[in-house]
């Protein structure tokens, strides 16, 4: 039997740069894990590709999937749904491959309830000013939405205690490298290698 | 108050290459941690430096330190004592600096009893043939000692369950890099960063 893959969950406050760090991890490295594309009802931004950045769906389509129990987690956030299609995640983990999720904090907590064996990484802003300017400079949101996001960010920071690791997004490459190291190190945990070692010992005796 | 440093314990079967990997970690990287030099009564090998590779001491000197309770752990191994001077370890951890130990398996288990919060890394041989040839090619030991070491190695492999991580010594640089990553990742654990984040949240509110 193949050992089940690792579920890796990257999350953090809105505007902290989760998407950029996730892209760096997938662009800069040959990874042994697959990225699970989230589903959302929010407006597609310029440059975003359906099925790559997100699955962009209508509210009706999304709510249909909720009723069918087809989501690992979903959340309503600033008036839009975000969620993780369940089927792909389970199938990939069962095949022994790791799955990488990049999701909002609300969703991460729900995944933690269902799959506590996952590795939960919180991407944190270097400081408040930095977070604020990142949100403002995104340039596609109204002032009211920015206020909303800031309050949300403080609430989200308080959730850090439910994560396994915290990585400061000081530079994108640094954060990406650290997250890669965390995943590699998690695979070196004895609890994940006992079977293999039982075989080696048998061979030696 | 400074947060206490991490105790990192590198161990593994005799002849697996612990010393070489430890040297690579200290030669190839700028580390934030200090190496705790072990004390031994075994014969100094060619090229080994007192106070760098080991503190080479007589049996009488070593037993004096045992009576004084001055060792974090010690073990008798193939007729010789090996041990870790306690004072240096505690002082360094209290200053908030990490301490790196490279010790025999017997000793590592004793350290685990006293300091379960340490990070215990087991360096494993890629396979039996490889381990065998490394022990034989060391060239300074008798046939009887080699047999003794092999039996010991199997016993030691069985102790892997008491460790946190297992790193295969496929190549020295690979193993050194992985151990570096483990140490860095351990520092990113949320449990070790909650204080810092309480401050950030306070700042934001």
Automatic annotation (TrEMBL), chains A, B:
A Pfam family reported for this protein in Swiss-Prot or TrEMBL: Guanylate_kin
Keywords: ATP-binding, Cytoplasm, Kinase, Nucleotide-binding, Transferase
EC number: 2.7.4.8
Record-level GO cellular component terms: cytosol
Domain annotation Guanylate kinase-like: ranges: 5-184
Catalytic activity line of the entry: GMP + ATP = GDP + ADP
Superkingdom to which the source organism belongs: Bacteria
SMART domains tied to this protein: GuKc
Residues that, per the record, bind ATP: 12-19
Protein location: Cytoplasm
CDD domains from the UniProt entry: GMPK (cd00071)
Cited SUPFAM superfamilies: P-loop containing nucleoside triphosphate hydrolases
Cell inner membrane among keywords: no
Single GO MF descriptor: GMP kinase activity
Purpose of the protein: Essential for recycling GMP and indirectly, cGMP.
Family recorded in the similarity comment: Belongs to the guanylate kinase family.
Protein name: Guanylate kinase
Gene: gmk
